[in-house]
Amino acid sequence: MELTKMSADNNTPTMVTVYIDDLPYQVSSDDNLLAGVLSQKLNLPYFCWHPSMGSVGACRQCAVTQYQDENDQRGRLVMACTTPVTDGMRISLKDSQSEVFREQVISAMMTNHPHDCPVCAEGGECHLQDMTVMTGHSTREYKGDKRTFVNQHLGEFVGHEMNRCITCYRCVRFYKDYAGGTDFGVYGTSNKVCFGRQEEGQLESVFSGNLIEVCPTGVFTNKLFSAHYTRKWDLQSAPSICAFCSVGCNTSVGERYGSVRRVMNRYNYDLNGYFLCDKGRFGIGFVNGLIRLRKAKGISQQSPEKLTRLEVSKALVHYKGKNFIGVGSARASFEANYYLQQLVGKSHFSLGYSHNEMVFAELHQQFLIHHKAPSIAEIEQSDFVLIIDEDITQTAPRIALAVRQALRNASIEKADKLGVPSWQDSAVRTIGGSALSPLFLLQSKATKLDDVAEAVLMQNTQDSIELLHLFSTLIQNNHELAKVSDDNVALLNKLLTAKKPLIISGWSHQSPALFNASIEFMTVLSRAKKNLRSLLLPPEANSVGQLALMDESSLSIEQVIYKLTDNDSDIDGIILLENELEVMNQSQLNCLKETDKTIICLDHSDNQITALADIVFPAAPITESDGHFVNYQGQIQAFYQVHPCVLPVQENWRWLTLIAKAMYPKHALSQEVHSLTELHQLFHQHDDNWPITKSTAYQANAIKPIAREPHRASGRTAKMANISVHEAKVSQSEGDYRFSMEGSDLNHATEMPFTWSPGWNSNQSIHQYQQKVAGHLTHQADALFFDFSQIKAVIERRAPLSEHQQCFHPQIPWHRSGWQSGLNPEFALLHKVNKIFMSSTEIAKRQLVENHWVSVDLTAASTGEKRQYIAQLLLDENLLGDLIYGDIDQLPNQIYSKVAVSIASAHQVEKYQNQCQHLQQKATQDKALILEKLKAQDAYIPIRLVSGGLDNA
């Protein structure tokens, strides 16, 4: 496990001199004037402009006075966002002409604004408030009746308050133009302009939550945050990493009174930029869930209120010297997985993958040894994209958003030839028209990128494998493609002529043969085209971290079950690290139930394994833990606890420390450690190749830790006034962040817990910490990557199971992929009914009726296990032959070798509809119970004085 450091891209743009109020500034010629001014950390109000979406000149707020030369005393008003930067240009921000104009623009906007800041969820972090103060507007001049709207219900996540709208058009530009949403728009009559849906209902885009951050006022609000609300300045926040897919988007998690309130996007130039998907933004609710584990199980306690280290040791000492299998998890931190592997031994360690997934893992590990995956910023530069049977709109939405931006490169290039810069968004879209860079989709089910694809090749898995083999052969043998009579050659021709081609595939199709064919094609093509970028998407946040731990002795789940049930085995038990073992089928689960071997489980919420376990340790979720994930590129990223755990809940590595001392006292890692920093030092002493060294800039420069709270936070006395008027002591912690408003300011933070700057209370303040607007952060640390080329690849690979023809392709939506997602009641409410899709030919062949209810009988290829579901039959004319796919609730994502579809009886339909209604009611009740519990908890704040383990008060 070697480590490489990657510095930020230092491509220097052409710099020109601009005189602002007679002072010279060096500004990038690539920027418009507004971006250039903001890059100099000067204050200039704006609304409609956004760094990622460019300029449309809709709000007229960024007016400045431009002068012809130093002798011009009059000047003329120009809009900074639509004005190119030229060498020697002279402007003024402080002259009376532009100042008065900007104040009058605000005055006009406030004519119909309700002035409801005290009750607005955006209060205290409102861009409109900031700009109003910045322009000097302070008097309400309009005394007449205000224009009013009827608000819409926009679903579970986004609230709507149209009366606050200032018609900046940011929302519709993001939702429709940038993210490709189709169910949101702008509608108007007379002087009433409304932004919303044609009819009420759930916003369909997986990026709908960005409306909350994009909107400069309080029109779109976070419903979940508003339900359990606190002001921004009272939030304690910490930098974190999204735990729901392998992209590794940077997030900022905010809490109050010991409960997580919201997740905000945390800017990272190379990854998520300014935007976050709804799964990363709203999925964190599981940490406040009803099934959180709050107490240990299987340990004798003298006091029900307190668990001691001695009591844990007494429970575990019986297993001293015993042989245990350790099962890791791709949702647990890299440190915890490594720790468990070292304790039980590599030959007794499982990544938590089935045999089929282990084949994927071995192939993926080999791929990473020879290929470096591109960042999202690099993906957006692509001029050709091929996606091989991976619905990235569901498995990695942030990458899908980047692909949409890459498709605009054809329009940008067309406009550039006419001298129109890329930031002139409206002009570029007008010039580009319908021009898109080529996107080819090779897939077995419909996706939300189909509408922008040049070609969608909807076919079964075997046909895709044969096509990729054909492409590989053509390239290897250097065939003259023009002579090959195949419609698909157009795809290969464009791929070979592209300047920055990109190929994407992943694990979700569940076919090792297709995965292998994809890698072979990428490898062959990379030899012919050195500029090829390719990436594979694993399923979870730390999947690539698991690949770094894998070797030939790693066990599959099937091997684990065999060793547990084999009478001749020397295995005495199993330790499961945050793994609910969803990959197990029913027969394997029954074997686990019947075993007499000891089951020790570490997890944060109840599941099928904690119910079986002899000993359960309540582990902290990501919001209460420190650790690292490794994203799809192999980039190691840190996450930090936003508040201390409430004992006996502990971070998983702290539980493993207790396990090590009691069960493995002679192991080199069986030492007392009190912080993650000490744990890394211990790992490094044990293993020279341990890649994470915690020598931070704060420690190196003797800078105080960063405060998790803004300096405006309400005092600690106010937090506990209902309990005691005496001020509570601040929770003490080791590390880079302090549980307090006291500490170094954000200028010293390489990973910012929140964004704020004087005069900039909203998230727009991030430009104050960027080298230039939309550029790298000023204090951004060098990214750390695993050097997979130093890893010894698995030589003797597992033979894949005999692969059956897949007859049914599961379509797993983003809100149901992953066990943690299923713990959120809001996500459960998004699923309405099961649906399956067929071609008209197949519907006729099976004598079925479109839009009718059908009974679907599926047979799993690996086990022969049969499942029956009721679903609505829908038509998809893009399907070929007997290809069938569907969105079916609680259907495992695996290969199904047989599918039988028949008309459902009235009794079956009625029973299914009653089940759906019951599930919706339960999700609604759970949502209300969670909120009730959290509000009751606010009255009794669990404040800890030390952020440590057991016996630390």
Helix percentage range: 25-40%
Gyration radius (Cα, Å) is 29 Å
| Assembly state (oligomeric) | single chain
Mean pLDDT: 91
| Widest sheet, order of strands | 29-33-30-32-31-34
Structure classification: alpha/beta
| Beta-strand residue fraction | 15-25%
Q: What's the count of strands? A: 34
| Low-pLDDT regions | 1-10, 695-702
Largest sheet: 6 strands, mixed
Annotation field: number of helices:
28
State the separation between the terminal residues, measured CA to CA.
Answer: 37 Å
What form results from the Cα inertia axes?
Answer: globular
Descriptive overview:
It is globular and about 95 Å long. It has 953 residues and is α/β, with parallel strands linked by helices. Helix 8 crosses helix 22, helix 9 (334-344) runs parallel beside helix 22 (652-663) and helix 16 (461-476) runs parallel beside helix 18. Strand 2 (15-20) and strand 3 form a beta hairpin. The chain starts with a strand and ends in a 16-residue tail after the last helix. The protein has a 6-stranded mixed beta sheet with strand order 29-33-30-32-31-34. Strands 3-2-6-4-5 form a 5-stranded mixed beta sheet, sandwiched between helices. The protein contains 28 helices and 34 strands.
Write the layout of secondary structure elements.
Layout: E1 2-6, E2 15-20, E3 23-28, H1 33-39, E4 63-67, E5 76-79, E6 90-92, H2 96-109, H3 127-135, E7 158-160, H4 170-178, E8 185-189, E9 192-196, H5 210-214, E10 220-222, H6 223-227, E11 236-241, E12 250-256, E13 259-265, H7 278-282, H8 309-316, E14 324-327, H9 334-344, E15 349-350, H10 355-370, H11 376-379, E16 384-388, H12 392-395, H13 397-407, H14 409-417, H15 425-432, E17 439-443, E18 455-458, H16 461-476, H17 489-497, E19 501-506, H18 512-528, E20 533-537, H19 543-549, H20 557-565, E21 573-577, H21 586-594, E22 598-603, E23 615-618, E24 627-630, E25 635-639, H22 652-663, H23 676-686, H24 697-700, E26 706-707, H25 716-719, E27 737-738, E28 783-787, E29 809-810, H26 825-828, E30 835-838, H27 840-845, E31 853-860, E32 866-875, E33 885-887, E34 896-903, H28 906-937
